Amino acid sequence: MIMFVRRISLLIAALLAVFAGQARAAQPLTFEQHVRPILRAHCFQCHGEEDEHEGSLDLRLVRLISKGGDSGPAIFPGKAEVSLIVQRLTAGEMPPEGKGKPVSAKEVETIRNWIDQGAKTARQEPDSPVPVLDAEKSFWSFQPLMNSPLPILQDGTRSVPTSYSPADVFLLAELQKHNLTFSAAADRRTLLRRASFDLHGLPPSPAELDRFLADVSPDAYEKLLDRLLASPRYGERWGRHWLDVAGYADSDGYTEKDPERKYAYKYRDYVIRSLNADKPWNDFLLEQLAGDELLTPPYTNLSPEQAELLTATGFLRMAPDGTADGGVDQTAARNDVMAETIKIVSSSLLGLTVGCAQCHNHRYDPIPQADYYRFRAIFEPAYDVKNWRKPADRLVSLWSDETRQKAAAIDAELKKLADERNAEMDKIVAAIFESEVAKLPEEQRELAQKARDTTAKDRTDEQKQLLKDHPSLNVSRGSAYLYDRKKVDALTKDFDARQNELKAKRPAEDFVPCLTEVPGKFPQTFVFYRGDVNQPKQAVEPGELSVLSSVNSRSQIPNSKSQIECSIPDDDPSLPTSGRRLAYARWLTSGQQPLVPRVLVNRIWMLHFSRGIVITPGDFGQLGARPSHPELLDWLASRFIGDGWELKRMHRLLMSSTAYRQSSRRTDELDRIDPDNRLLGRMSIRRLEAEAVRDSILAATDRLNLEMLGPPVPVTVDEVGQTIIGLDNRDSAGRPVSKRVSLGDDEFRRSVYVQVRRSLPLSMLETFDAPALNPNCELRNRSTVAPQSLLLMNNDFVLAQSQALAKRVIEHCGDNRAEQVRQVFRIALCHEPTDAELEAAVQLIATQECEFNAQNDDKAPPAATRAIASLCQALFSSNAFLYID
Question: What does DSSP assign to residue 69?
Answer without folding.
Answer: B
